[in-house]
Amino acid sequence: MAFCPIFCCGKSFDRKQRGKKQLSWRVFSLKELHAATNNFNYDNKLGEGGFGSVYWGQLWDGSQIAVKRLKVWSNKADMEFSVEVEILARVRHKNLLSLRGYCAEGQERLIVYDYMSNLSLHSHLHGQHSAECLLDWSRRMNIAIGSAEGITYLHHHATPHIIHRDIKASNVLLDSNFEAQVADFGFAKLIPDGATHVTTRVKGTLGYLAPEYAMLGKASESCDVYSFGILLLELASGRKPIEKLNSTMKRTITDWALPLACERKFSELADPKLNGNYVEEELKRVIFVAILCSHSQPERRPTMLEVVELLKGESKEKFSELENNELFRSLQAADYNDGASVAEDSSDFISEEKETKHELKENIGLADAHNS
Ligand SMILES: Nc1ncnc2c1ncn2[C@@H]1O[C@H](COP(=O)(O)OP(=O)(O)OP(=O)(O)O)[C@@H](O)[C@H]1O
């Protein structure tokens, strides 16, 4: 087993940090988790991700949990599990889904989290809860700022800093008060202090992937900023990151949003489900920040610290600078995204290790687009 020492002893936490949120984590027995989930009953299943299924459960004290059960046992999964566990064990913030415990018995590897009763942002925007229209504008704004603060913590305050690498609507969970909890650190890797980026395997979800990450496998904090920009556009507009135009062509959400932002057509950008009930100044902030975040050139993107400041409207000067940015003065979509558009069908999720640029381009259906 590849458990790290931090995980085994559980004493390396900063006690003050721990006290801020959930109590400390603990080891669960398999028997206890079987009892809590009705033997991992199909009816308890919340969903399935890249590494396994997630089940709802209830402990003897009445508290509700979500148990992630790894599906296939292999050395690779073992490594991912210990990575996730090590990272989760260290990180505590009000907007990050924290680990409640784990179980490692025989061939079973399970991670226990608090159950988020309002499920994922994805389920409200496009899934099972979308018809209920529970996300009014103030909730959306709160989710935007909360998730930005969670990611800011990963990038700027966790030691060492952490790149999430799979920011997307299904990884933003919502608690009973619709407070955002950024989840799924299974893909995250710890960045050594001082390093600006790590070149490593590409993992992420199509539509949210920064072009330089998709093409070259260069993961950095600015890749998360890019994905967060897509998520903000999705939150404000209710649209999916990639929209199918016809049988062969797809359009990205940024290609759709930029011309409307340039023409200041905010009512067309807002999710129709809001029925016009939004604060225009806030919507404007979200849209401009989102588009800047998802700029094709990483150096043009803001940091997450700046994103939080802008979203909160803390600096009027910085916002007016942003509003007057040349990006929003005229239609410069081609310059903004280097002429990239998504053509042809492609899979939604890239999970395999891709060694070459060519393989990558083929896989995400962006062949040649970014070079034009
Ligand atoms: N703590 C939780 N509370 C409530 N629902 C949860 C919780 N954790 C996960 N889920 C739900 O379980 C499902 C599977 O989650 P999981 O993190 O395994 O995969 P994913 O995020 O959908 O995909 P991927 O593995 O590609 O990131 C998702 O629909 C997610 O919303």
TrEMBL record:
Record domain Protein kinase: where: 40-319
One Pfam family per UniProt: Pkinase
GO MF annotation terms: ATP binding; protein serine/threonine kinase activity
InterPro entries from the UniProt entry: Kinase-like_dom_sf, Prot_kinase_dom, Protein_kinase_ATP_BS, Ser/Thr_kinase_AS
Region described as Disordered: 344-372
SUPFAM superfamilies: Protein kinase-like (PK-like)
Keyword field: ATP-binding, Kinase, Nucleotide-binding, Serine/threonine-protein kinase, Transferase
Residue numbers binding ATP: K68
Family according to the record: Belongs to the protein kinase superfamily.
Record's protein name: Pti1-like kinase
Species for this entry: Quillaja saponaria (Soap bark tree)
